[in-house]
Amino acid sequence: MPRYIISSALLVIACLLSGISTVEFEKKIWELTNRERRANGLSALQYYQPLSELARRQSDNMRRHKFFDHKDQEGLTVGGRQEKYLPRLKINSIGENLAYLSNSEKRFTPQEIVQGWMESPGHRANILSPDFTHLGVGVVTKGDKLWATQNFASPLVMIRHKLPLSSSMKGVKLSFEYLSAKPRKGFAATIFYPDPNFKFYLDKTHYQKGSQPQQLVWQEGTRFTVDVPFVAGKGKYKVFFGWDGSYINDGFEVRSR
User: Lower CB count within 10 Å: N or C terminus of the chain?
Assistant: First the structure.
């Protein structure tokens, strides 16, 4: 008979039979999560593979290092892991659900996991949060044990270049994918200079110090590019994104050499 031990930081479940692959198991958790969201009048979460890879890393960490907690062996929680292992993604918010399952018959069901989460207030709040738009699921098994991680997020953009970025040219053209659920009207970039006193002239008489607004060039679908001119000399340039003159204070750094 299944048994449940639930607290704000811990969910332990012994489950019944399943018989599907790990990838199918992960996708079924996503489908059942969206079923709960639709039943509560919320839009479905988009399955996002980079978040699944991040979630799988946490599940495997818990398996290898024999712990069960949102804080990993490096002292990082989900936000810190995203910044370290998925820095090409910029987000507005991120959340995480964890589950540890043990069953002597080595059989588990996605339904039991999602049901257990829905019966726990903290986990339920993540599943039914209107702020999240994307989801990744990572499942790892060993013997009669299974570890599952859900990573929720509201992504903004993903840069399509390897990091870190640097160039000895007079500037660079950066390519991005737009991931936000918000309409892209009014979405723009702000470039911050290495010299905070360098002036960017808006017209013949008006200027701003240390930064400049920059238009986006939209490509096919959700892709766009941003030109980063190295007009303020060598050093670190930063590209931030936002709507209608504001910006999210977590940008991409480009070094002019």
Answer: N
Question: CA 212 to CA 107: how far, in whole Å?
Answer: 57
Q: Is the per-residue pLDDT at 97 higher than 80?
A: yes
Give, as one character, the DSSP assignment of residue 243: E
Facing residues of 199 across strands? 209
Structure tokens at 239: 């590209």
Asked if pLDDT for residue 241 goes beyond 80, the answer is: yes
Three-state secondary structure string covering 161-212: CCCCEEECCCEEEEEEEECCCCCCCCEEEEEECCCCCCEEECCCCCEEECEE
Classify residue 248 by its DSSP letter.
-
Average pLDDT over residues 151-161: 97
For the cut 50, the answer to whether the pLDDT of residue 65 exceeds it is: yes
